Amino acid sequence: MIETLYLFLLCLMIYLFWLFIRRPANWLAAALGGAAGLAVLARPPALFLVPVFLYHFWRAKRWRSAVLLVVVLLAIFIPWTWRNWQVYGEPMPFGAAGNFNFWIGNYHGGNGEQSPTEEHIQFAAKYGVREINSESLRQFKIFLRDYPAEFLKLTLLRVNKYFSIFRPMGFWFYLRGPGQFLFILSSAVTSVLVFILALAGILKIVATRDKRLYYLLALTVMTPLIVFITVVETRYRFPIYPLLAIFAAYFIVSLGSRFKWRSEKLLWLAVALIFLNGAVDLFLNIGLIKERLNGFF
After folding, report:
1. CA-CA distances (angstroms) from residue 53 to 17, 175, 194, 197?
2. Do 51 and 120 fall into the same domain?
3. 214 lies in which domain range?
4. Total-model pTM
5. Closest Cα partner for 229 from 161, 151, 115, 148?
6. 87 and 109 belong to one structural domain
7. How does DSSP assign 268-283, residue by residue?
8. Vertex 256, ends 251 and 257: CA angle to 5°?
9. Same domain, 202 and 286
10. What is the pLDDT of residues 251-273, one digit of tens each?
11. 95-106, pLDDT tens digit by residue?
């Protein structure tokens, strides 16, 4: 339910921002601040998109619009922060257990996924929210200090898994056997098409220097940043799909009435990059993928 609401709010943010770029108005800035505030309440990583909006306001010298956006966002955000302060004794603006992923995604010998160890499970069962948040950040800092190279490796692995075509959705608890496999197969086909066409669209934007869409590129870069340094899960790709769909549509429209698929070099470059990334993930995690496939038949 929260994922669906977050996707709606994310799409609303993109739509309002694009409207503002075309026809600047203070009421649009206020509406954008409202959508951003609600999106942050649903999923805190939405806050990473706000600097992109403010950068445009700064370039356009829309100071009043920038103030309106921030004021409305804070008006929505502060009551939740105050509530957590009253309940837990500290502000906790991003939820009660937001720091836990920093720990379970970054430890010596980890794989960068949301797979807590026995130590994580026991600590979470024994202590409260304040202690979990504090200890999670402490352990994350220790890991960064003692294993910087391993943190870099885990970050690269998370980037690889995030965009891997061998990480489809469909591992739902209410599906079993062939039915689940068909659902996963349809998800995989969709992921392949969206990733390839979106990357081709991004490459075309870069090649043609279409500055109109640079802001969408910036939003696309900012969307998964927190995932790359915490934990990667397939469902965490949901927020980037609306943006990728825009780039995919841009590429298809750019071909015009003549579908020059075979002669489109950027398309084949995108195919090569997406499948190469997937092949790396397949090579590194072949055991896990086999284990999951064996459960379908």
Report:
1. 7, 40, 25, 26
2. no
3. 155-297
4. 0.87
5. 151
6. no
7. HHHHHHHHHHHHHHHH
8. 135
9. yes
10. 988 887 666 666 678 889 999 99
11. 656 788 899 999
